[in-house]
């Protein structure tokens, strides 16, 4: 009988991507905490010139001497996402880091850090599908609390009641597409806000949802800001922001 190797998340060789939750380090899972503290090699995505949200989240947790590999996006907002140049740059960036992580994993386990949950608009997905297809190293992914969960808790209000349908959309959609989606949603979450806030605001206005909308910037972190969207301007909204509207579905009312 062949003895099975432990999975990367159990300390075995290979690559494990760890979801770190929305920002407050105490909202990390016990498993994520264990893997981050024990890591000898970590990799994380970031925009050039920025520290990286995932890397900031593990400040003070990494072991002394842990090797750090910053995977810096060649572009984020500099080129249109549907331009051939953007698509090609990103595809080569993911190919390159897939091969580099594979090589690093030959020398010991690699822990990839990811803000929120890795399978919810997380960059690691692009490496995951490549690594899985190549099949050269064991692969594992540890779930994390998504950023939007931290954000609706930051407002102190439940997000869905009764039959409410929750729709999650991205601010990168066109205004008409946002309107179409908002019209059929009771509760809604708009991710990827940043410079898309004016368009999101117009779509909320057109669907009569603006008054009920909230804006949460950097939810659950030290720089968290929570406001009614109607009370804030469109200026300088960070990419790590979420617009949300709570559902108002059926609920048995209290007697007092
Ligand atoms: C182009 C654009 C389009 C879009 O979002 O669709 C896009 N990112 C945009 C902006 C942006 N991205 C980042 C910043 C700086 C944040 C800061 O530092 O403040 C800014 C803002 C800025 O530059 O101003 C950094 C960043 N991005 C991701 C991570 C890692 C992670 O979260 O895992 C980190 C590191 C964060 C960190 O930890 O620090 C992840 C993703 N970003 C993607 C696309 C997808 C991959 C690309 C692809 O394969 O196509 C993917 C995988 C998500 C997905 O799959 O959707 C959009 C323009 C939106 C617009 O039009 O306004
Ligand atoms: C590339 S996606 C990554 C999502 C992440 N994997 C998750 O599970 O939340 C980035 C978007 O997530 C949202 N986001 C994630 N964490 C957030 C937080 N703590 N506060 C506000 N927005 C957040 C923002 O809308 C941002 O544009």
UniProtKB/TrEMBL annotation:
UniProt GO BP: cobalamin biosynthetic process; methylation
Enzyme class: transferase
Keyword list, A-Z: Cobalamin biosynthesis, Methyltransferase, S-adenosyl-L-methionine, Transferase
One Pfam family from the record: TP_methylase
GO MF term set: precorrin-2 C20-methyltransferase activity
Recorded catalytic activity of this chain's protein: precorrin-2 + S-adenosyl-L-methionine = precorrin-3A + S-adenosyl-L-homocysteine + H(+)
EC number: 2.1.1.130
Domain Tetrapyrrole methylase: 15-228
Pathway: Cofactor biosynthesis; adenosylcobalamin biosynthesis
Subunit structure: Homodimer.
NCBIfam families xrefs: cobI_cbiL
Protein family membership: Belongs to the precorrin methyltransferase family.
Name of the featured protein: Precorrin-2 C(20)-methyltransferase
Species of origin: Delftia lacustris
